[in-house]
């Protein structure tokens, strides 16, 4: 049942699975690189479902590492907008092609990055007025359509000025919850198949290695370095969506 892939394709998938682990325990937004790798090797819809299952595995390790550090008030306030975004994404996947939309998402991410950095230069505290609805809806939509909600939510948590561990803990609970909500929709839409699930079983050890490596890396980050890396990875994710 495993797809017939070249040795180079397997190496790329293993590396992408390791990046999933690192993204969950150290570098939010890096999973967009895994999105690109999976889409390069597998059919688009199959890649989305297969990657979702690995992201859920990564969520387990993220919660194990940072479950005590979440900002629950921020999560509760985000929930309605995120759910609305997920449902919009489900409707889109049922009806439309995503090639043009990915470019729109990429442009939106770049605008959000510029706006967030501009506000930080002006010493603004917290996300902008209405930002919870904007970021939450866009985050739910992009994660449902392309597993690309990481860059959007990274910008929201960055704007909220969370310390490193609070950032990672809040992100861990956010994506663990959202990805579980997405799972039945992905199965019903035919995104996660038995072949994709078997592929995931082969790749789970790479996620574990990446998660443990990321945990060590996070302990060495200071706040300024962490925020710079988050911004850079978000820009990479946005550019990928544009190409």
UniProtKB/TrEMBL annotation:
InterPro entries per UniProt: TM_pro_TauE-like, TSUP
Annotated membrane topology: Multi-pass membrane protein
Subcellular locations according to the entry: Cell membrane
Keywords: Cell membrane, Membrane, Transmembrane, Transmembrane helix, Transport
Family: Belongs to the 4-toluene sulfonate uptake permease (TSUP) (TC 2.A.102) family.
GO cellular component, one term: plasma membrane
Membrane-spanning residues: 49-67, 74-95, 101-118, 162-181, 187-213, 225-242
The protein's name in its UniProt record: Probable membrane transporter protein
Keyword Membrane set for record: yes
Top-rank taxon, per record: Bacteria
Source taxonomy: Bacteria, Bacillati, Actinomycetota, Actinomycetes, Micrococcales
């Amino acid at each position: 049942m495993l797809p017939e892939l070249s040795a180079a394709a397997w190496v790329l998938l293993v590396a992408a699975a390791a990046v999933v682990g690192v993204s969950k325990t150290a570098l939010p937004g890096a999973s967009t690189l895994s999105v690109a790798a999976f889409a390069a090797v597998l059919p688009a819809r199959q890649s989305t479902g297969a990657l979702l299952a690995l992201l859920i595995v990564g969520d387990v390790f993220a919660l194990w590492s940072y479950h005590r550090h979440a900002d629950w008030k921020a999560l509760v306030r985000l929930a309605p907008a995120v759910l609305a975004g997920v449902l919009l994404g489900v409707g889109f996947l049922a009806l439309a092609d995503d090639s043009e939309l990915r470019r729109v998402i990429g442009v939106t991410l770049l605008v959000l990055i510029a706006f967030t950095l501009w506000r930080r230069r002006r010493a603004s505290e917290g996300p902008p007025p209405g930002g919870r609805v904007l970021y939450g809806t866009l985050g739910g939509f992009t994660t449902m359509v392309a597993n690309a909600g990481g860059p959007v939510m990274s910008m929201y948590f960055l704007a909220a000025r969370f310390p490193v561990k609070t950032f990672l803990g809040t992100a861990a609970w956010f994506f663990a919850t959202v990805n579980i909500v997405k799972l039945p929709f992905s199965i019903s839409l035919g995104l996660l198949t038995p072949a994709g699930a078997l592929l995931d079983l082969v790749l789970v050890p790479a996620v574990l290695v990446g998660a443990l490596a990321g945990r060590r890396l996070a302990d060495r980050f200071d706040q300024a370095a962490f925020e710079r890396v988050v911004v850079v990875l978000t820009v990479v994710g946005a550019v990928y969506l544009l190409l």
